Write the structure tokens for this entry.
Amino acid sequence: MATAALSTVQLAPGQAAWRRFRRHRLALAGGVIILVLVLGSAFGPYLLPFDDTYIDIMKRFAPPLSGAHILGTDELGRDVLARLMMGARVSLSIGFVAMMIAMAVGIVVGAFAGFYGGLIGAILMRLVDAVLCFPTIFLLLALAALTEPGLVTTTVLIAATAWMAVARVVEAQVRSLREREFAVAALAFGSSNLRIMFRELVPNAIAPIVVAATLNVAKAILLESYVSYLGYGIQPPAASWGNMLNNAQIYLTNAPWLAIAPGLAITLAVTSFNFLGDGLRDALDPRMNIP
Amino acid sequence: MARYVVNRLAQAIMLLVIVSAIGFAILHLAPGGPLSQFAASAQMTQEDLDRVTRQLGLDRPLPIQYLDWFGRMLKGDWGRSYRDGEAVLSVISSHLGATLELMATATIIAVLLGCWIGILGALRRYSLFDTLATVGAMIALSIPTFWFGLVTIYVFSVKLGWLPAGNRETVGDGSLLDLLHHLIAPAMVLALVETAMWGRFMRSSMLEVINQDYIRTARAKGMPEWRILTVHALRNALLPMITVAGLQFPTLLGGALVAETVFTWPGMGRLFLDSIGYRDYPVVMGILMFSATMVLIGSLLADILYAVVDPRIRVG
């Protein structure tokens, strides 16, 4: 009996984190919405009778809920819901992949800077500061203007403008963890520097890294929408949430639904990831209090 | 104090050198290099191209070219626009006023509204107002600025007809009232994200201050609550906001670009996008470097100002 009573008081760290996370209802809702969006974009297109690139000039600008087109059609008679689902694939993929590239670069740069410190650390972190001086959208558009637009380019460029915040987080973590007993013990044990960095220090900084990764997906989805809206990201006929809004402004007067659906989708996805990141921050590390 | 300023200034100059190196590298990343615009022209033979390359010194080693370019940047020679041959710096300065007008208006709205929401949220923590403000701020940070602009145009211009859908003034009018009328919508759109940021920072700063010992002391000695808030809490909670102003600057500039595009506002952001469309690399690079330098100076000023008002910074 006594052991049972004890076990309810002293939860394992994972259980305690899950309890705190569950209390964060908006984060939970965010997680559910993300799941729905991912599943919807994966299987949704197979359930629809329309192809996202099928042009039907006879049915241009059909308003939502008129006939078979649930969300209406666009200026070329393409089904908006089909494009929204295919666009979700593109936008969410870019969000995840750009996040992973940015995390990889940011973790490596941050780990090296934090572990070695001194001149190497100073040079790497000044590089981070310097790239952060460029307003993200300006840098992204300048780079996009110099390259061939497309799925891969857009993803890589978004990652190139998003790794710096991760590097800062990891650098600060690694710099403080490096002095802790387990790191010193690993050094005394004869582990190589690389092993200490990526097998000991980085895994111990996993909480802020996971939070940064979640917020990074939100940022990447938002950046994709900006750069595609401005015409330098995903190119038509392929759909993305950003480029669906590209022409929406011209038809705002007679077909406002073209602007509403993709914009709501972006806002919903980005808000969900932001709330999820917020909830994870509270759950994984109650001491972290970055606004 | 002087030592702190000199130190911070040296850091900023070092950063400017790295920033310029990145800018230079991007310029040379352009397919075909800085001359791609002319190389694409059918009227230019390889001979012409070689001659121009030599004339512009593009055949020299890259480090030499960089030093030369950086030196000319410092002297204010930022090259000439491919589009009309005008000096880059004068093209930028002719568009700067419109951008600054938009940014300043949005900042004033955001600071007043954001600080008010943040302070009230902190004082009534976990109240309905605080919860709504916190959730609202998160949603505001997640809305794409350009889409919020489109919605604003649809509601206030298309449906209600209250506000113009774009431009800085009506052609032939241009009175103060007309200018203000055009300013409302883009400034409101740009202020949304800013207000959310200021609100969040203000709330957490205020929360930190009102839990300090000196607030408890003030309360214990029987000071009236409004005096505790204004004299002790607010004054200390507002200090870190100087840093926020510096931190916010890149976001503000980026937001201005988007707002200017949606509302066809004749500012620097719109010029940047037009120049990208024309492959006008000197202007694109000029604006990129100009905005980065503005950010650099902004954060330098914020740090120095913060050290002036908060002596603890200078010592540490």
